[in-house]
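Memo to structure team: turn this sequence into structure tokens by end of day. - J.P.
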Amino acid sequence: MDSAYACYQERMGGKRLPPMDLDYADEIQNYPTWVAECEGKVVGGITMMFEDDYASIANIGIHLDFQGQGLGGGLMKFAEAQAKENYYSELRLATHVLLTENVALYLHLGWVEYDCDDVRIYMRKVI
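Reply from structure team:
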């Protein structure tokens, strides 16, 4: 995940995004997590949470070398399928306000903004 978020470091003024400091072993143990592999190497991943009324994407990241190839969109579609399979009709996520290309991707995939603060944009998608 460090590679997935490394490209944002300069934009963030050297601050680390919260997903960069997660204990991924703990995340994988406690939340449904899937990875994408290429030639035996993990190149992307997604972690979801299933709440009472909605499912959420807690984290999604694509290795820098594999960004722009549709893998992120594929993982988002996978998340939708997982939510539907578990009888949810809404997905939610939060992203940093400075990650404008992520917001653009989510909007392109049919997500809508429903709230924001100084740091995050909160988005949802009815599925």
